[in-house]
Amino acid sequence: MSETREMLGRMVGSITALAQPRAERRANRLARLLATLISERGEASGAVMARRAVALYKGLDEAGRRHFFDLLARDFSPNPREVLSAAEAYYKAPTPANLAFLQFVSEPPRQEVFRRMNMAPGGTETLVSLRTALLKELKAHPEYVVIDHDLQHLLGSWFNRGFLELRRIDWNTPAAILEKLIQYEAVHAIQGFPDLKRRLAADRRCFGFFHPALPDDPLIFVEVAFTDELPSAVAPILSLDSAIGDPRRARCAIFYSITNCQEGLRGISFGNFLIKQVAADLQAELPNLRIFATLSPVPGFMKWLTRRVGERQAWADDTTRQAVSGLLTRQGLPPPESSERVDQLLAWYLTREWESGHSRDPVARFHLGNGARLERINRAADLSTKGVAQSLGFMVNYLYDLSDVEANHEAYVNDHKVAASGVVERAARAAESLWAEPDTEKSRGR
Amino acid sequence: MSETREMLGRMVGSITALAQPRAERRANRLARLLATLISERGEASGAVMARRAVALYKGLDEAGRRHFFDLLARDFSPNPREVLSAAEAYYKAPTPANLAFLQFVSEPPRQEVFRRMNMAPGGTETLVSLRTALLKELKAHPEYVVIDHDLQHLLGSWFNRGFLELRRIDWNTPAAILEKLIQYEAVHAIQGFPDLKRRLAADRRCFGFFHPALPDDPLIFVEVAFTDELPSAVAPILSLDSAIGDPRRARCAIFYSITNCQEGLRGISFGNFLIKQVAADLQAELPNLRIFATLSPVPGFMKWLTRRVGERQAWADDTTRQAVSGLLTRQGLPPPESSERVDQLLAWYLTREWESGHSRDPVARFHLGNGARLERINRAADLSTKGVAQSLGFMVNYLYDLSDVEANHEAYVNDHKVAASGVVERAARAAESLWAEPDTEKSRGR
Amino acid sequence: MSETREMLGRMVGSITALAQPRAERRANRLARLLATLISERGEASGAVMARRAVALYKGLDEAGRRHFFDLLARDFSPNPREVLSAAEAYYKAPTPANLAFLQFVSEPPRQEVFRRMNMAPGGTETLVSLRTALLKELKAHPEYVVIDHDLQHLLGSWFNRGFLELRRIDWNTPAAILEKLIQYEAVHAIQGFPDLKRRLAADRRCFGFFHPALPDDPLIFVEVAFTDELPSAVAPILSLDSAIGDPRRARCAIFYSITNCQEGLRGISFGNFLIKQVAADLQAELPNLRIFATLSPVPGFMKWLTRRVGERQAWADDTTRQAVSGLLTRQGLPPPESSERVDQLLAWYLTREWESGHSRDPVARFHLGNGARLERINRAADLSTKGVAQSLGFMVNYLYDLSDVEANHEAYVNDHKVAASGVVERAARAAESLWAEPDTEKSRGR
Amino acid sequence: MSETREMLGRMVGSITALAQPRAERRANRLARLLATLISERGEASGAVMARRAVALYKGLDEAGRRHFFDLLARDFSPNPREVLSAAEAYYKAPTPANLAFLQFVSEPPRQEVFRRMNMAPGGTETLVSLRTALLKELKAHPEYVVIDHDLQHLLGSWFNRGFLELRRIDWNTPAAILEKLIQYEAVHAIQGFPDLKRRLAADRRCFGFFHPALPDDPLIFVEVAFTDELPSAVAPILSLDSAIGDPRRARCAIFYSITNCQEGLRGISFGNFLIKQVAADLQAELPNLRIFATLSPVPGFMKWLTRRVGERQAWADDTTRQAVSGLLTRQGLPPPESSERVDQLLAWYLTREWESGHSRDPVARFHLGNGARLERINRAADLSTKGVAQSLGFMVNYLYDLSDVEANHEAYVNDHKVAASGVVERAARAAESLWAEPDTEKSRGR
Questions:
Q1: How far apart are the C-alpha atoms of B55 and A260, rounded to whole Å?
Q2: Which of A263, A348, C177, D278 makes the best surface tag, with the fewest CB within 10 Å?
Q3: What are D293's strand-pairing partners?
Q4: pLDDT (tens digit, 9 = 90+) per residue, B263-286?
Q5: Torsion of CA C319, C323, C326, C327, to 10 degrees
Q6: What contacts A291, CB < 8 A, 6 or more positions away?
Q7: How do residues C400-424 score in pLDDT, each as one tens digit?
């Protein structure tokens, strides 16, 4: 029908098997099969062929996968000439037929390839792992980005919030799923099943999003602790020996760990939905809850500070720079007399430092982008090696006030303004005296 | 960012509420909300806004829906100028970035609208029913086809075989689902629960595809009867009084009714997958089964014959024409002496009559397109009023031989050749003498 | 070990198969198998033998069953001499060992027989149906009462409330279970699935007790309607056309039908637990509910009245007797001028007529024994043929006030006093003038 | 009605609360409540009172429980005089009525007490734990055996095989249940979740019996390994590093660990049913399996040998005795030159040593009583400290040949003859020369 399809038809023949290494031959065979699969011939035995394609893909080694990616990137893109002619027709006459044809020729045939592979049993899982493999190659092979673009588009559509199931995870959850939480946990490592059991006790909650096509594998999960007050340190929450409290009396629900599980779904956002849904559900179950907040790390603080210290001209004076510099070489918590200064630097870092229109710190970017408010800075809050190395042991609380999130989010997106409590805002302002000049605007990176 | 998005931004303002009727005002409000939802502003409270959009849509009356479709068709299509410029850039330099931009501007914003609406609870169901409503308007409003195109594209991707669950339906199935079978059944009407119960007894099977987002509503279902021989009439299968046989002894699995349930999923094909999956599963459960076949109506036969009789010059001679014409006016089964002639006409109709590259008969189109073989023509097989009116009481068997379906399908698609048994093929050839001239080629409509 | 067991050992040999009819031979074979099963030899292959015994029992025809019951009644009872000697030993020295031996010899070996049969798949179901068959024979064979006594004892223990599961039944319940409700319903017949569907709508509830060994078969179920006021007629509740109300606004939960499903569990009481559990659960779900009551038939009224009219000397005078007699021959609702008299007779019947220490009316016996209060008498409340024949169309409300049921129950059991509202009590007193003499005491049948 | 009941009536009053310690007062209150509960008064509010009784029991401390047991043993037994008179009546006239009355008065009212307590939520669990507590007191308070007798009778009836559910346990089982396996495992201790995971891998199986009233708590479980040959050592089975085999190719299913979980169900036998059911199910799933056998410890061997060595006159001569004695003091595996002698002693111990009509070794008693055959003695099969201490590291295989178990069981029960392979039988005979005289008969303990 279209040139693209014809081209694919020719390709089926042209990818010949002359003196190719084994890995290449297999990748070629797979590509030919996929080209057939998306042609009309593939319809009657689509299920059988999809199964075969998935099996072939799984049998590829690293070299075979790379060759396969090469073919996917090269041979399954829209035909530029065909696209141009369709665009001209649509420009001249934006009729439904011209629009339909435009859409047909400008959608990369790769997308149909992936839709067909998805029909096989285990297809979705295979595509998620295919993208995981692809993302690893992306640095060395930037040309694969076209494949990634198609995969992300499809997976984003398939893992639409409307298809996700929110499940509570507790000690009655199958061990096969609990084991995955232990593997995936990215914020505060879980030390085996006994540690996990404490995190699933009566005064805790854990919720995850699941997709029907990956029923035993969470996409994202959040761990919640119920507390009386906004917590200022993570150790009491992680302690195995703490007494189990009564959730009906708690005032605060603290999101102390959020983990995205599937590398192959990178860039597809679940966390925003998860936190707000969990907050709403917990509020309905436990009407005594007044505060929904996080206890969060500041993973990028020290990295940023190190770079800044290197920039001589950034600082108000050398004394200041050297004082800050001292913090970096200390390898431990800051001395008491420096705590206030670190407060200020941290407040500045989280409220004034921007990168491509977003907060520079990845955790801040997530919560502030969701419309949370930066509520409090906590000293000596995470004494783990990682905590001290990342942020001198400091942690922060982001507060989710559901009646404010929309306004906060808009201020963040449109005005690059961070919602922060009075204390934090004052600390950020105090930090201005440390710099050579007010560089707010510049740092926003617009 | 892109012009399209900017245009939408302006639109939010421009759809004003001056002196509009109530239905229009509501449709406008919905369209504005959706435009906001797909802008960046919609991110933080996407779930809330999606919920509101779904509620607003559900509140529209017929006039409101039509106005809403007008807006969707007019304001949420790609911008022709933007598309052209992206196509030119991609033509000059087919880089990943240019490809990405091309895809972005050539995808109608409607698709994002639907993806966002899907995030609300009940979103998928709403979109399926939105398409049902849309299809009803399509004849009067052909311009809505652009909306339908986007919906079908998305729904086709979301109802991908990989996401469907095959479920056996039996007397232990919830009544709420069984009730739907009674409502939906399109081939041999089910007369209430007792009738349905017989169709779910031990010597029958019923299977359906379900989607996780519509867990209590089948997408398609097939009814199977186990028999000793290829059946030549449907009454024994539909009889409530028949003895219940032992499925382990049966040789034949007969697909005697297949129903697509969701008008809103029209054009998204499930039947091919369903039949082949069910055949494979039954073979594994009951190794004695040797034959997988249908007992099928020929719904288009009389309609076609009537039209043909009207064409004087089509017939070998007037006597023939009048003889055939007599069958049409008779209102009952053909007399015994005419049976052979009807066999021939039917064989011709099913094997030689084509329309836009497909069998003219809709049921034949489905099974022959799946790669089945037209095995046998049965006289006096369906004595119901509908059966006599549609096809003079004739029914046919299509045979699914899994080792042949791929070859049959290819012959059907590529050569417009129907796989038929010797008997049927001979009958079709005998029919050639009835016509004025061999018009095989012409009737294929190529 | 004990003589009883030895006796059984001998029996295994002595039940010989000389010239017996086929049915007897089978029953004998079963009895021998069971005697083996409860001997030590049966242990290793207990499961196999139990399965065989159940199959043998199921294969018996009526004559075979009767012969089998003969053997069960005759050969599986305790040995009187052995019992006497154990009782003497226990009387002389009530030691644990003597008590244990007493229990061992005084428990009929039949009980162990049934416990062993229960081990087979479907065993419990078989025993329930065995008892159903036994109860049918009991009138003709009063000697079988010893078997029934053992079965009732065991089934009573096995169907202990602690093992029952309360399940809500609604339109999502499997059709196989709903079909049973239609079969079993004993109060207001259900006219097929559409009728049942109305009874399971949002403003209704249906709950049943299930036992894990009969997972698809309710033991008892109750139907509840939510109403604004205490209802005085059943037709509006049974109507298929009534609008579906909002249960959250209802003030009254009306138990309008309670059915015991399993004849084989006769005499094992579930209704008391069911009503109170359902009332407690509904109160928790719907805090607006203020009144839990029934709308109940008075099935024994006309039968009693007919007998009473026959007793000339019972009545204050012949005029009264003839007036009452006129009601009986009328075959329809009583004329308006008689309604008050019927009220009085009904109030008398339900509050003053006793039989073996219980209310004479079976429905009254159940609710009053549960501690309910007789709240109101309703004229023209059930216009069905059955309703008019049983009780001249009258129905009554029993009220469950959970804070009073214990006191009401004690007054009923200990003082033979019925809890009744003032109106009902006054009507009962007014009835005294109809009788020849106050015969309250006599009628209580003590 | 009966004297027993009247006695209980009086008791309700007589258990007075004069100057009693708090624990006694609570126990008294509970006993009074239970006496009321089984009287007629308890009927209307049986569920409420049962709930209260369970709560009261749970609130008792150890002293309170003892006092409660005192009351249960003393006041809830049958009345000897009443029993005697009922037995005399039944002896004179064994009528149904006399039998019914005999049963009524000879059943301890304790049984009704427990049946009533069982009606409360969590009742069954409470009774199982009540018996656990009771069994602990039994040594110090042998008079409690009457309570235990009643509890065992009831629990035995309630946990009848027909009510148990066989469930496969694997890595998809809830962690809360898996954790219990780790706690309960009595044969080869499980070292946490990773160890358990290996035992649940694809080449293993684990099955347990569950009761509907204790849905999350196994009653018994068995662990099965699939192997090519009858295994001669347990370490390869327990190793975490072993490769995971393909169960479809295995010839042997080895039951290497069986654990009864509930101390409160002691004496109620599940293992026999479990092994045979699992064997039958595995055979159906994996038709290649040829051998069902155990790899079992011999827990009583060293204890028996130590005692025997102490008996000088038992041995053929002092040299023999001293040689055997040397094995006991060695604390390690026997030296190679002694292995054959240990084989013989073990064969003798397992086939010739009896106690009260059963094999002396508890594991042998179980498997031989089930009808298994002692197939092989394995040297150096369990090198764990426990294994060496119990049986010098020896283990044995018991073989379950389903076609022989009934005959083996009968020979075991009736003739005290152990089914053993030729090799084992020869070893046992060779052991005769070690003893002073052939004492086979004596050791059978008849």
A1: 31
A2: A263
A3: D254, D399
A4: 999 999 899 899 999 999 999 999
A5: -160
A6: A230, A251, A252, A253, A399
A7: 998 898 889 889 988 889 999 999 9
| A336 — pLDDT class (breaks 50, 70, 90) | confident
How confident is the model at residue C116, as a pLDDT?
94
- Among D435, D445, D286, smallest CA distance to D353 is for D445
Sign of CA dihedral B301, B307, B311, B312: positive
Q: Identify the helix (H) or strand (E) that includes residue C186.
A: none
pLDDT band at A49 (very low <50, low <70, confident <90, very high): confident
Decide: C52 and C33 in contact? Cβ < 8 Å.
yes
For the segment C21-48, the average pLDDT, to the nearest whole number, is: 82
| Per-position b or e across A166-178, b if 16+ CB within 10 A of its CB | ebebbbebbbbbb
The answer to whether B174 contacts C173, with C-beta atoms less than 8 Å apart, is yes
Question: Is there a contact between D46 and D119 (Cβ–Cβ < 8 Å)?
Answer: yes
Min Cα–Cα distance to chain C from D246, Å: 31
Query: Looking at this predicted complex, what is its ipTM?
Result: 0.89
> To the nearest whole percent, how much of chain A has pLDDT over 70?
92
Phi, psi of C353 (to 5 degrees): -95, 120
What's the 3-state SS for chain D?
CCHHHHHHHHHHHHCCCCCCCHHHHHHHHHHHHHHHHCCHHHCCCHHHHHHHHHHHHHCCCHHHHHHHHHHHHHHCCCCHHHHHHHHHHHHHCCCHHHHHHHHHHHCCHHHHHHHHHCCCCCHHHHHHHHHHHHHHHCCCCHHHHHHHHHHHHHHHHHCCHHHCEEEECCCCCEHHHHHHHHHHCCCCCCCHHHHHHHHCCCCEEEEEEEECCECCCCCEEEEEEEECCCCCCCHHHHCCCCCCCCHHHCCEEEEEEEEECCHHHCCCCCHHHHHHHHHHHHHHHCCCCCEEEECECCCCHHHHHHHHHHCHHHECCHHHHHHHHHHHHHCCCCCHHHHHHHHHHHHHHHHHCEECCEECCHHHHHHHHCCCEEEEEECCCCCCHHHHHHHCCCEEEEECCCCCHHHHHHHHHHHCCCCECHHHHHHHHHHHHHECCCCHHHHCCC
Q: Are D22 and D63 in contact (CB under 8 A)?
A: no
In 3D, which of D199, D203, D4, D16 has the Cα closest to residue D104? Answer: D4
The conformation of residue C107, written as its DSSP 8-state character, comes to S
Residue to substitute from C12, C90, C111, interface D, most D β-carbons within 10 A? C90
Mean pLDDT of chain D: 90
- Residue D93 makes CB contacts below 8 A (sequence gap 6+) with none
pLDDT of residue B327: 85
Alpha-carbon gap: B62 to the closest alpha carbon of chain C (Å) = 25
Q: Is B64 on the interface with A (CB under 8 A)?
A: no
DSSP B335: P
Does the pLDDT at position C42 exceed 60?
A: no
A146 at interface of B, judged by CB pairs closer than 8 A: yes
Domains of chain A: 3-158 (1.20.140.90), 162-294 (3.40.630.180), 301-443 (3.40.630.150)
> What is the model's pTM?
0.90
Indicate contact of D with C: 3+ CB pairs under 8 A.
yes
Please report, as a single letter, which amino acid is at residue C322.
Q
Strand partners, A254: A225, A293
pLDDT band at A4 (very low <50, low <70, confident <90, very high): low
Residue C444's pLDDT band (cuts 50, 70, 90): very low
Contacts of residue D100 in chain C, CB cutoff 8 Å? 145-146, 149
Please report where in the chains the tokens 């070299």 appear, as a residue: A63
Q: Helices D362-369 and D405-415 sit at what angle, rounded to 10 degrees?
A: 120
**Terminal CA-CA length for chain B:** 47
